Amino acid sequence: MKKIIAKPQPILSPQTIQMIATYNEDGSVDLMNAAWGGQIDNDLLILSLDKSHHTVSNLLREKAFTIGLPAAKDIVDCDFVGIVSGNVDPTKFEKTDLHAESSEKLHAPVIAEFPITFECTLEEVIENETMGFCVLARVEDILFNEDVLDEKGRPDIEKMNLCFFSPIDHSYRAYGDVVAKAFSCGLAKKGK
Ligand SMILES: Cc1cc2nc3c(=O)[nH]c(=O)nc-3n(C[C@H](O)[C@H](O)[C@H](O)COP(=O)(O)O)c2cc1C
């Protein structure tokens, strides 16, 4: 196949939609959408953040925040908080249909609707010349909504209705069909 060469672009796909929730100085909630990031160790996540975001000043001050993975039904609110800044509208979270509870572990809000929530502390800040900087998030705990667990208490991906961000066409997409079993379908080729 002939390859077409292109300049570097932030298109690694798909990206998890990471919803970062923090407390503002007055105790109200701020929430932002962050798609550029990922998991780099059992209990370490990385986020690529623009320093201008209100979330950044909150998480540098509090050193605590949560990262929620949203279900498709809440995507309009997730997009809204990704296009309106708490710097401009400090009441933006109140305009969503989402609900915040206080984390029992950290000084950070937990969004009730998100099926999975990572309760995080700020581990490290890594300066980055283009995007602003990267934040290493230490995962202290993971919260699962009860209704996304199976009868044995294990997280059930089918019940979560998670969705993802496609940076190639700027769309939100649903989790797709199972194609094959990982760490297993390749066994058929072993010993050939
Ligand atoms: C789909 C989507 C993905 C985004 N991903 C990021 C990201 O990875 N990093 C970032 O700094 N901003 C990202 N943003 C932009 C912020 O969410 C946005 O600027 C937000 O208004 C910041 O809110 P705050 O100022 O209240 O913290 C994204 C926005 C959308 C809609």
Name a few traits of the molecule.
seven-stranded antiparallel beta sheet; mainly beta; 192 residues; Pnp Oxidase, Chain A; 12 strands; globular; single chain; binds flavin mononucleotide; three-stranded antiparallel beta sheet
Can you walk me through this structure?
This protein has one domain (15-189): Roll (Pnp Oxidase, Chain A), CATH 2.30.110.10. It is built from 3 helices and 12 strands. The chain has helices spanning 54-62, 75-83, 157-160, and strands at 15-16, 18-23, 29-34, 37-41, 44-49, 64-69, 100-102, 109-111, 116-128, 132-144, 163-166, 171-174. The strands form 3 sheets. It has a 7-stranded antiparallel beta sheet. Strand 4 (37-41) and strand 5 form a beta hairpin. Bound molecules: flavin mononucleotide. Flavin mononucleotide binds at residues 30, 32-36, 48-50, 53-55, 79, 82-87, 165. Flavin mononucleotide binds next to strand 3, strand 5, helix 1 and helix 2.
